[in-house]
Amino acid sequence: MMIAERTVHPIPPEYDDRSRVLILGSFPSVRSRADGFFYAHPGNRFWKIMEILYSVSLPDIPARKVFLHENHIALWDTVASCRIKASDDSSIAEVIPNDLSPILHTADIVRIFTNGRKSYELYMKLIYPQTGIEPVLLPSTSPANAAWKLEALVDRWEEIRDCTQ
Hints:
This protein has a single domain (about 5-165), classed as 3-Layer(aba) Sandwich (Uracil-DNA Glycosylase, subunit E), CATH 3.40.470. It is an alpha/beta fold. The longest helix has 15 residues, at about 115-130. The chain has a four-stranded parallel β-sheet. A three-stranded antiparallel β-sheet has the order 1-4-5, with helices on one face. The chain has six helices and seven strands.
């Protein structure tokens, strides 16, 4: 039986002063924590959705970072540390939220999106009272969200592109 371990978020936020939208996941997967960048699990569809929406190829972390900056997209997560079993969002407990103020004071963020319900719920409970910025809930790109096919995700995530152009 896997034990929920206290884990600290090891990945810094990816943003700059030109970022216009902020996409928040919940907490990085085991693979993302190991690779040191967001959405590294091969089954996660985040980068595939971005490739389709923006008609680009994003084969590696350097290309992904350049893409984010060129398209004014900031990435981070709602959780700074928590107890979690592997990559299971449903096991997240004892949450300490991330402080979004460095991003919000540096960049002119016009919209915050949450990647999945867990991120949305944690944001609303722990971060919204400080920011007062209502997030847009997008369906999770996680492979655990098998009910959403890629085409439907792309359609729903299109709002990201609309905000960055």
